[in-house]
Design brief:
Blueprint lengths: L4 E6 L14 E2 L2 E2 H11 L5 E7 L5 H10 L3 E4 L4 H11 L4 E6 L7 H14 L3 E3 L13 E4 H10 L3 H5 L3 H5 L6 E3 L18 H18 L5 H10 L17
Parallel strand pairs: 1-4, 1-6, 4-5, 7-9
Antiparallel strand pairs: 2-3, 6-8, 7-8
Helix pairs in contact: 3-5
Length: about 250
Amino acid sequence: MTLRVVASIEARFQSSRLPGKVLADVNGVPALGRILRRLRCAQRLDAIVLATTTEAADDALAAFADTEQIPCYRGSNDDVLGRVVAAQQQLESNIVVEVCGDTPLIDPEIIDLAVDTFFANGCDVASTTYKLSFPQGMDAQVFRLSDLEQVARDVDDPAVREHVSLYFYEHPERYRIINIMAPIRWRAPSLRCQLDYPEDLRFINEVYAQLEPTYGDSFGVPEIIALIERAPQLAEINRHCQERQPR
């Protein structure tokens, strides 16, 4: 049996720190469009689905998905876990690749690495986020839809409903988690490549402005780190920004 691997992008228009960030302009392309372009470069994905909400503000995201010809599931604003499960069920997937809508620099090679690691090790979760070693925003988490469905059925904790894969990490005694460590030359866990604040958007635009003319959308962690080594002042743009913790 061939297992169907589907990436679900969790995204909504509203954001307390940077409203509308998922459609923010990133060097001429909406941030969500940047994520799609990068996921489409991954070799180990069978499909991509957008998991957004039924809020009126997210009509724009649904319209964008229609323009990009990707499936879109609209569900609860607060129950992100239930929304992702339903989105994956809609595509009849077996294996979930969880992608957040704040990662317009996500490296498709890391997506493929996570999927390959999952299948090669017979684990329950393969993740680059369990113990951070890659730059922030290079998030790849892979697990079975059946395991996520069970969590959705059995757990009502609001934090778990909001943070899709949190339950796996809270219960390492139940799930075999493989933490994917970045190669030494790619280790930069303090480097912010995710989109949460205006300063993040400025940094990401600078990265695209510098690298896109040469590499198009094909650049990844090696090229970003090489850029920071040449121009270390770029990393200072958003170094002070802090990621919100699940609890």
